[in-house]
Design goal:
Bound molecules: FE2/S2 (inorganic) cluster, fe (ii) ion
Radius of gyration: 22 Å
Number of helices: 10
Helix content: 10-25%
Shape: globular
CATH superfamily of the largest domain: Naphthalene 1,2-dioxygenase Alpha Subunit, Chain A, domain 1
């Protein structure tokens, strides 16, 4: 008698994608107890530059203090709790001032001024802004809203070495598109990690890359992904596969021949091309709604060239994004049906099952 075949791995029950209470718990455990990618250091190039991020109902100020250190704070005044910054990005004039009664805070979070607080027992030192751990990897800013953050380096494991040749911190933002997708954030990660849908859904993409040719590496507890080579003479992911920019300067010959697609849990999708970097960060708004910030970053030497072109890459991925978001919204709709029940994964959807198990293990 042979060994009995292992049961077929199946998709998760509907509640993982439809239950608002489960969603609340997921945000607590999977987002707030992890490093999440907030943005790029270039967004806060100068002291006082800032941008806001919203995660799980929290508003977070990310800024650079007077000594050049990136900082993150809850957007909550220590007087009576008011949300202080409301414009999504800008420059703080050396301090953060609450618009209610004028308490003001330094860019390092210390309370500098508290009008009318004359009580002898009041001490400004007792009321700094609530600070959030903040760290940087190769130009990406990460924040951690949990109580016991492990070092970011543990979370990233071998990724800094693996992706050093792309020189990510040198790359400059050229284009950002924000998408509002009516789907659970996990469905977007599942979709990113398989290309079985590529021939059906992405005819343009499928001409450039072999959908069965993904070279995935063994998933870890904090990331998963792999590389895909080009086909048909394509040299990058663009409308016609033609590369209109020089290769990123430090890439090896092998690295020039493929695109690396990695999910760094829980919210960064990192797509490293031979001539540019695309990032998606996922910001869950509700169990069935996710904001996605997609950015295209290029080497500054390319951007400065008078004949610099990027529309080919932006148009290509914007179209592909919209195809993906559309199908994932249909997936969300079907999962919400009372007829839905978990369906079987194929062996080529193994990363998806691994991700589901990662979610289950952290419930
Ligand atoms: S609530 Fe901010 S100064 Fe009063
Ligand atoms: Fe896709």
């Amino acid at each position: 008698m042979g060994t009995p075949a292992a049961p077929v791995a199946k998709t998760l029950p509907a509640g993982y994608y439809t239950d608002p209470e489960r969603f609340g718990r997921e945000i607590e455990k999977l987002y707030f107890e992890s490093w999440i990618c907030a943005g790029r250091t270039r967004q806060i190039a100068e002291p006082g530059d800032y941008f806001l991020r919203e995660a799980g109902g929290e508003s977070i100020i990310i800024t650079r203090d007077g000594s050049g250190v990136p900082r993150a704070f809850y957007n909550v005044c220590r007087h009576r709790g008011t949300r202080m910054c409301t414009t999504p990005e800008g420059n703080l004039p050396g301090r953060i001032q609450c618009p209610y009664h004028g308490w003001s805070y330094g860019l390092d979070g210390c309370l500098m001024g508290a009008p009318h607080m004359d009580e002898p027992t009041f001490s400004r030192q007792d009321y700094p802004l609530h600070s959030i751990p903040c760290d940087v990897w190769d130009g990406h800013i990460f924040i951690h809203l949990g109580t016991r953050p492990e070092p970011l380096a543990h979370h990233l494991a071998d990724l800094p070495r693996k992706f050093a040749h792309w020189g990510m911190q040198d790359l400059r933002l050229h284009k950002r598109i924000v998408y509002d997708v009516k789907a659970n954030w996990k469905l977007l990660i599942l979709n990113y990690n398989e290309c079985l849908h590529c021939p059906v859904l992405h005819p343009a993409l499928n001409r450039l890359t072999d959908y069965l040719g993904t070279d995935n590496e063994a998933p870890t507890s904090t990331y998963m992904g792999g590389a895909m080579g080009f086909r048909g003479g394509a040299e990058t992911m663009s409308m016609d596969g033609r590369r209109r920019r020089d290769y990123l300067p430090a890439l090896t010959v092998e690295e020039r021949k493929r695109v690396c697609y990695y999910t760094i849990y829980p919210n960064l999708l990192l797509s490293l091309h031979p001539d540019y970097m695309m990032t998606h960060t996922l910001w869950p708004k509700a169990v069935d709604r996710t904001e996605i910030i997609c950015e295209w970053h290029f080497h500054p030497a390319e951007i400065m060239k008078p004949d610099f072109q990027a529309d080919d890459a932006i148009e290509f991925w914007d179209q592909t994004n919209r195809e993906d978001w559309g199908i994932v919204e249909l997936s969300q709709s079907g999962i919400q049906s009372r007829a839905y029940m978990p369906g079987p994964y194929s062996s080529r959807e193994d990363l998806l099952h691994v991700f589901d198990e990662w979610v289950i293990a952290r419930e």
